[in-house]
Amino acid sequence: MQRRLADNITSDHLSCPICRDTLKDPKLLPCDHSICYECLTQLIESTRRFNKFSCPVDRREITASSYIISAEQWASSFPTDDLSLLLLQAISGDNKTETKPKDGIPCSDHPQNVCDFFCFGCYQIICSECAVENHRSTECDCKKFKKCADLAREKLRDAHDEIENLIRYGQDTVMKETGKDQLLMQSRQQIRNTVYKLKTIVQDFEKMINRKCLDILSNVDSVSNVEQLKKRTEGIVKDLKRVRDEIELSKSLTSTKDILTVLSKIPESLQKNTELLYSLAVSDNPIQLKLELNEKFLDLCDTLVDQPIGTVHVVPADSIDFEDTEATVCSKRITFSSDVLPLRAFELEPYQAIQVEPSESENKITARFTGVIIHGHSIIAIDNANFKVQRFRDTIENQFIDEVSIPSIYDITNIHKNDDVLVTAPGTQSRLIRLSSYKGLSIISEKVTENAYFNISQLPDYTYAVICHSSPSCASKKRVNFHWSRGVTSHIDIIDVDGNVLKHFSEAFLCEPTEFGDPFIMPLKSICCLPNGNIVVSIETKTNSFISCINQNGPVKWTYDLNDTPEGVCFYDGRIYVFLRESKVVRVLSVDGDLKPVSTLRLPNYFGDGNSLFVGRNLLSVIDKTELIRIYKLQC
Questions:
Q1: Alpha carbon of 27 to those of 21, 54, 131: distances in Å?
Q2: Fewest CB atoms less than 10 Å from the CB: which of 43, 316, 373, 562?
Q3: Where is the RING-type domain (predicted)?
């Protein structure tokens, strides 16, 4: 009976579904079916080109983790079915000779058994019956004690490493939080010290004001003290009454000696009291006191009352560096902090570059670009060295379209809602030229100008602002010895599209020489116009470099010191872009509401001076009087 039961178990549960023989080196598939190692290797080999095979029992597909693994390696990767081996040993009677160790660990579920298995899935010490009955899931991995040592040591090492990592993480967390707390405490203390210092300054200021007010009041009291005057006058009158009484008394005296004695004292007493009365120097005119306060002091107090004392910035300790900047707005000098240092600059993405090779003629002249605009779907550039206006496609690098030759050309700008453009040509005979770009670049009209027009920018009311450089009248008579560094004056003209001058702004008006120093060689460098008609120009004097904004109908609206040398300026989408020569970055200023810096842009692989700047249609272009125009993608 037992033999037949053992044979049935062997044939039904412990036989290979492929060879039908008793399992040999059984491998356990993910679907919990077992196959001989050799049969599994042959099965994998037969379906190797599909990189998968199906279980011969339930047809479940099993896919290999890689195409390069061999059939033997894949078959060996499946776990050994230790439970089937255990059952085979029990049926064959091999375990009858084994004796249970007396010092073994008794099983909690089967007290009659000694534990000789360990489940690495449940991390439990179990007996053979537990392994057969309760640990048959795919998560379980039961192994006999004698096969557990290496795997157990590996699991212990993994657990040890994991615990060490957790300990380090906890210690690092405490250290970081401690460091943060210390930095926060230092920041709080620094702010408190600053506030206490400010409070002390205010208290000292209040004491000084009180002292000065007391001085003023004491001076007021010293002008005329009626009480003292009254007391002194009453004393003199009292003494005079005494003298008068003595005289009345002497009249009734019979002795001549006594009368003469009284009479001898009267002149001295009269003289003394007369001098005392006149020493009071009381004027018949009424006295009125008037206090004239210092107007500058009052203006300063009004300004301080309206200004915020300070702002607390809650930011990561290493994420923002602040830079102090200054500006003069509406004749008031203000200082503020901004988080737009060059080291925090946002790097733009290069878009394309324009570089034209010189012609193959004997006298090759390298291009010298001085101006650029985006017009339609093309880029129009000014080559000042070769006297050419050249047009390129805006999507393909160096894709030339057409050109036109014009002597002494310098800068270019668009005409409002028109296919035409305006070009300045400050040569021997300075001109303003209108070009058509409808089919090909061609000259429509020319206007000879009295002054040499260089940089030009478009105003919103169909007018244009141009920078003019002119030499003294004597210079033209000695053209051979003339040098730009001597006697050059700069100013701005407002002109119409035909070149007629509508307004004129001198360099003294633009530079405010009383505050920033006298202008010197061509101080006006680059220009741009705002939608409200104001004009922004970059200026360099003997002692200062700044940008200035002027109103066409009034004085300078504001000046802004960027702690650097501004070169090219441009306006686009509510912001002013300024190239800073020393930092090699573009500073972006917001003019929406308050004037303030909002970001800093770094141009990768650019090392020029940025004499001119153009921003439009989310593209930023740098022109620096060289043979290369760099264009960057502006991410708004």
A1: 14, 14, 17
A2: 316
A3: 16-59
- Tokens representing 427 are 């040569």
Phi, psi torsion values for 301, nearest 5 degrees: -65, -40
Given CATH 2.60.120.700, say whether it is the number of domain 2-152. no
Question: Which residues have a Cβ under 8 Å from the Cβ of 389 and sit 6 or more positions away?
Answer: 380, 381, 382, 383, 403, 404, 405, 406, 409, 412, 423, 435, 441
The candidate with the shortest Cα–Cα distance to 466, out of 508, 416, 501, 518, is: 501
Handedness of CA 9, 10, 11, 12 (dihedral sign): positive
d(CA 266, CA 243): 7
Coil/strand/helix, residue 157: helix
- For 526-568, the pLDDT digits (tens) are 999 998 888 999 888 777 788 888 888 766 778 888 888 899 9
Q: Which of 457, 475, 479 is nearest to 527 (CA)?
A: 457
Distance CA 370, CA 430 (A): 16
- Going from N- to C-terminal start, the domains of the chain cover 2-152, 226-279
Q: How far is CA 336 from CA 311, 343, 345, in A?
A: 11, 19, 19
pTM over 0.90: no
In angstroms, the CA 563 to CA 132 distance is: 82
Residue of 444, 379, 416 whose CA lies nearest to 623: 379
The rounded distance, in Å, linking the Cα atoms of 96 and 118 is 22
**Pure H helices in 424-545:** 473-477, 507-511, 513-516
